[in-house]
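Q: Structure for this?
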Amino acid sequence: MKKNTTNLAFYVPYGLWLGLFVIAPVLLIIYQSFFDIAGHFTLGNYATYFESGTYILMTLNSVVYAFIITALTLLISYPAAYLLHYTKHKQLWLLLIILPTWINLLLKAYAFIGIFSQDGGINSFLGMMGIGPKQFLFTDFSFIFVASYIEIPFMILPIFNAIEELNEGFVNASRDLGAKSWQTFTKVILPLTMSGVKAGVQAVFIPSLSLFMLTRLIGGNRVITLGTAIEEHFLVTMNWGMGSTIGVVLILAMFLIMFLTGERKRKGGRAS
Amino acid sequence: MKKWKWSNLYLIAVFIMLYVPIFYLIAYSFSKGDSMSNFHGFTWAHYQELFADTRMIQIVIDTLLLALLSSLIATIIGTLGALAIQRTSRPVLKNTVLSLNNILMVSPDVIIGASFLIFFTALHVPLGFMSVLMSHIAFSIPIVVLMVLPKLQEMRQSMLDAARDLGSTTGQVLSRIIVPFITPGILSGFFMAFTYSLDDFAVTFFVTGNGFQTLAVEIYARARQGISLEINALSGVMFIFALLLVIGYYFIQQGAQSRKSRKKGGALR
Amino acid sequence: MKKLISMIIAILAVVTGLGLWSTHLQKSQGATGDNTLNFANWGDYIDPALIKKFEQQSGYHVNQETFDSNEAMYTKIEQGGTAYDLTVPSEYMVEKMIKSKMLIPLDKSKLTGLNHFGSLYMNRSFDPGNKYSIPYFWGTLGIIYNDEYVKASEIQHWDDLWNPKWRGDIMLIDSARDILGFSLVSMGKSMNTTNPTTLQLAKAKLDQLSPNVKAVVADEIKMYMAEGEAPLAVDWSGEAADMMANNSHLHYVVPSEGSNLWFDNLVIPKTAKHFKAIYVFLNFMNDPKNAAQNAEYVGYSTPNDAALHRLPKAVQNDKQFYPDQSVIEKSEVYEDLAPKIVGMYNDLFLEFKMFRK
């Protein structure tokens, strides 16, 4: 009897949340995706999405950028998380990694605009070294850089947690057995921290697909992602149907990613 | 004292990168000009302006209150949810629930905001603090689940079985073994939820009403007239405050822990 | 576990403290339900000192909520749930809101000071006879140039933007109607064109402009121009005024072949409740002295002629922001186009933004 009540306590609040704030809105979005701008039932939104090259191109764009951003973030975050693990006061350092995320995104974007601009920080530095001013803003480079900057804490955190739980014994055993440090890393440390990497990738890749604020502020709308299009359909055209359609595509893409990175225990092998 | 390691240089570089834009913001809060370009000389004016602005102070307080409360509740529900997911044995169901979990993370804020608005008005929930609180809880839950779940997965089943064999009840297993083990995940989840809540603009805009306003909405709305350096000053104050809080909390905790461990003579956390 | 529980208690304690502080502040500001006025406004679009003055004079408390786009504001009012008493939509949105019966007609018998407004700004096509709206600020669309890089003679017409000399030099405001609009005007067409072929041609012409475009941005354009990041920009006059205040090298031109004329207007949405306070506030804002103070703070062009005469001579005679009648007459006000057409404008604009090289 008691067991049942505790079980209920696990499922009920979360289940309620799933039902009310996830499934209901998603059904609403799917429902809306079948209406055109004049409020008539149609399949036209999906036809537009798949037929006009614009949206397909935009989707590819988003995936490519999200992929690059995630890869770069992972590349920077993994060693950082690993090194953090060996510092004194590591919990404090970790908190200090999270702290910058509490400053409003728009403000940080404006700060980057200042840093990257023609007579901003970087260019004056280059000027001192005798190099003429370079165009940084509105380039793929600056967009990817700033997006990665924003996402880094979201990647470091889960990886750090995974490394924390790593049993030092395995690492030492591997070293004692004569493994080179690179071997220890690829054969022992990396597989054992894979769950953290996956959580980080999910927390970064998925939101990166629908970035929109940075595409305008830093990318100068020279970078267009699905997020930009949705934003426009909801807030400018007020074509909620088309906006919802792109939303549905995003959700489907996310399902795909989840199933690809999800655990496959059945196979019995180690994921990765 | 260990000798200096070159690898620390990498960490220092990462920290510098993370903090450069913040210091840039704070530096300009002392500039005489009124935009974040070209420093015009030192002044305290923006801070005076800030402390005289009751409306702004009210917004900051409401924002903090909302962020703390919503992330606390989201952390509790999210942790319970992660436990529920962990107990699910069928992989297909598990993956489905996990995907559902992530929907709010992948959906752009405008979609979430607009559909929540329709949802609240359909149910006649008055717009204001409560509707914003519910929305913030809603979109913070998935990140908590994502942070807690890996911890749960690392826990070895044998550990739990052993505890049960020794006669522990479910409640005891939960409070004595599971929760302490996943605490770091829970804390990360809380901090991430806090971050999401502080930063959210689009969802809050749609579901707020009757005078309730958060800082992010105010900042975005002011952007049309150019962000005033008063906002920089505000960020500066909040940042320094958070920094002191974090450092203070850490050392108090450290002190308590080292006393405790000396007493027990052990180093267990 | 213990650690977590003590943390939860600590957080709850802090929350309670903040809650008490917040209610205290609210009380000290005098908000008590019935004597309030809920004002949905663009951010920083009214002098806060005026609000204080109004509260002291009238005893009403102004509850300001801010929005950052006409459409988002529209959605909120359409859904109901918030009791806005006044809001400030742009002209095409006024038209749209009238069409969808979301506005309450003004009771002219309760209004004073309407005679202060210039005839150019009243009785426009979006609200004939000003049944629903009072103009708040107005302006044009034009070109901002930096005289360190651009000579005045080089940039007098929309077509001058296409000069290959400006490769990668132009910043555009992120707005479909405005950008396609100036392309249309440069072809001698109306900014309210609904003909798909003409729109396609205007878009094709914009594609030719693409190599000259540095970025398509929004509010932050002000910061960029003030900083000298780009020598040229296409933006609204109100924004231009802001930039020029920060950089004396900047100038604003409204091309003589025509441009857009825009208005932000005070209206009463259907969600309004506090009608007494609304009219007291409207009359307060129509007062030339207050309107002048507001115009000085916000920096946009005021439609209140009596207020304009109170502003410094340099402002009154500034042809950039108070252009000659002939320029105004040539300019078009945006009409609220059918949703299909708006969709077309936006799709074409999106394609233009994605078009590279």
